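Problem 12. The chain below contains 389 residues. Write out its predicted structure in token notation.
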Amino acid sequence: MPNAILALNAGSSSIKFGLFEITDTPHRIARGEIGGIGTAPHFVARDAGGAIIGERRWPDASANHEALLGGLLEWIEAHLGQDTLVAVGHRVVHGGRDFTGPVRLDDKMLAALDLLTPLAPLHQPHSLSPVRALMAVKPGLPQVACFDTSFHHTLPAVATRFALPRAYEAEGIRRYGFHGLSYEYVAGALRRTAPWVASGRVIVAHLGNGASLCAMRDGISIDTTMGFTALDGLMMGTRCGTIDPGVILYMLQQKRLAAAEVETLLYQRSGLLGVSGLSSDMRVLLESSTTEAREAIELFVFRIAREAAALAGSLGGLDGFVFTAGIGEHAAEIRAAVCARLAWLGVAVSRAANTIHADRISTRESRVEVRVIPTDEEAMIVRHTLETI
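Solution.
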């Protein structure tokens, strides 16, 4: 009988999942989310066509991960029928310096990953909570951690090092890069669909609520915009991206903000939301006629183009540019604006192809081939989980 693998991506108030049947080629048979964790927990599952095939609400806002994931497993077992859930793969944000690939999870491994929490205090605990819950609910079920940092372990030392005393680097203060599962998937998809581009110098733009760029040479990461944390680099939905450290000192010393207040400001109140004063959702901003919304969009595009130019310098030129993730895949206006700012690099986009979200949106005359590739981090998690178990 076919087996199945569950891919989990946990956040602060939700757990997204994908359920894959493993035959000759893994294929998704359901996807969904447990949302409202801590307030009004709500489970919903959809089939490949988007139809709802499972739904449940918990009346108790305090329902913990064990109760919620136990409910998810009950639904999965009923939905699979004669099939068997053989493993769970988790997106874990930080793998530090040592974890360069997926690992099988046990108590010892969990303890090692807990030690990385200071490197990602807002993300790592949420990544690991479902692991512990599933260990309690289903002790014998194999679980695998797939790290968002692993893809960037190919970065040269000069791209990871901060200009700080070396003692800090020895403690692990360096640039790591994130969105690695997405970049790994896109690199593989590009190699299948346009190998002549994949073998060259490519920038991939993962543009969503979290946003970053990755410079790849022959599908290998050599530079990226996120650094020590997922706060660095591009302007994002609610995160500011790269900022002068002196601004942080000013907030602490002159505005008398506590460290926790600064953290909240930079992670949750800045970015598109902070500049627009309206929303972190690009769809809302594109529909808005306010000056603040247009200025937020302009800054978002400006920062993408500016960082892309820097990565082109790291690559020594540019052969391909790929848009992916929510904004990158669906916002034609943003793609056009970014490419217009990169015209000096030889980027030329077909308005018609861009409008219909074609796979290739560059013109025949463009010196840089521009593509749109939907990302699939869940598929990458399943692939790594299969390799590990």
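Discussion. The mean pLDDT is 94. Students who got a different answer should revisit the alignment rule from Section 12.3.
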